[in-house]
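Please review the protein record below. Let me know how this chain folds according to its tokens.
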Amino acid sequence: MTEKLSIALLAGGDSSEREIALQSAAQIAAALDPEKYDVTMIDLHGRDWHYTAPDGREWQVDKNDFSLTVAGERREFDYALILIHGTPGEDGRLQGYLDMMGIPYSSCGMTSSVLTFDKVTTKRTLAGRGINLARERFLRRGETWDATEIADDLGLPLFVKPNASGSSFGVTKVRTAEELPAAVEKAFSESDEVLIEECIAGREMGCGVMIAGGREYLFPITEIVSKKEFFDYEAKYTAGFSDEITPADIAPEVKAELNRMTLEAYRTCRCRGVVRVDFIVTPEGKPYFIELNSIPGMSPGSIVPKQVKAMGMTMGQLYDLLRECFACDLERCKGICCVEGNAGAPLEDDEPDILEREYPAYKPYMTAAGIAAVERQGFMVVDSDGDYTTPLVDDAECAYAYEENGVTLCAIEKAWAEGRTAYRKPISCHLYPIRLVQFSNGTVGLNYHRWSVCAGARECGRKLGLPVYKALREPIVRRFGEEFYEALDAAAELLKNR
């Protein structure tokens, strides 16, 4: 029986979408399996970050370490599940805070969140990536602009949008140049910057997507048929004001193009977790990008839950898939810390003797700091877990590592390549954090150094009872290739059978 993960479900927020965020959080809290997750719902509103206990009392989060003390009992969290639309949950602010606190979280990383919350920056990022974009004009508060000139340039009608907002707050469709000033002022009430876009006529499509455990999940596409002028807040969240058809009745080639653009936007913007990308498809079948929602609505009336249902999946199962990404920040992961669950083999007892014997062969390739570390600490050291590991330089770099043309290399491997030693077994975890190796006594195992596994991955692996490398297929393959990942699977299976 694995230990339950302690999850902080972050809801509310400071934007006009606050109520929708609270509805989303309530839906997800009800969907998460209480046998797997210990969920604490925290409402964020300005500096007030509180948990409401069943007796109605409110308890404040300690922002110094993101902990919560309820009636004298301190709670620490393994993971933050962010369901805040708008600021601070969708614009990168909360992600930056959680990064500093060392708390893994469900949404896009800080940089990706900042990028995707800013509509014009998102469009600049996607330009040249094979995604069709509407022409636009960008306005900052206080700038002078000419309504007639913009209308003549972009044509009519036009959409006027806050540059950083969601749920269509502050959005207006204008049909004449005379309507532009009032529409721009309305948009400025939600954001300090405004985007004016040409109107692309067509059918609106919502495309859900996520990558979990290295696998791509393209949700069934939803066609959004608004009974209002466009898909505004009322049409989105009031029953009867829109029809949402899932799956959309579209040609196979249009579906394929929407899926391609959705994945391209997801990857280009370095997204993570569940994301929804919206498009307009012209009568000719050409999709145009509208926006990317890095934390899409999860309330009962929202699009993504309907798509998940159409996939034959429950919301609880959806977040079970995402739990395998709880340990690490895949945006930054390089595939180094990629195994846990006791799948590794400790170094052999004769390792220090071999290293001492062969040391003169690879010493010429080592750095002065590495040589000093070896002479001070020994050829191998025993870590706090009782495993052999390499001596370290400044508690971080392997003593046997060195740089050549800006690339970190292994002095032992280099000496072998130069014919100076018959001993090739790699030591530097920066180069070979995990490898299926043939030990000198004839046994085979996974060779890695435990200290190279980050604390978050180790803790997650312990609680979930799974090898973390299973959840990190994408960065591992990206760095080491498909053959290496297959070797991990083979080695893990071999060790399990043994």
Summary: The CA atoms of residues 222 and 246 lie 5 Å apart. The longest strand covers residues 203-212. The longest helix spans residues 252-268.
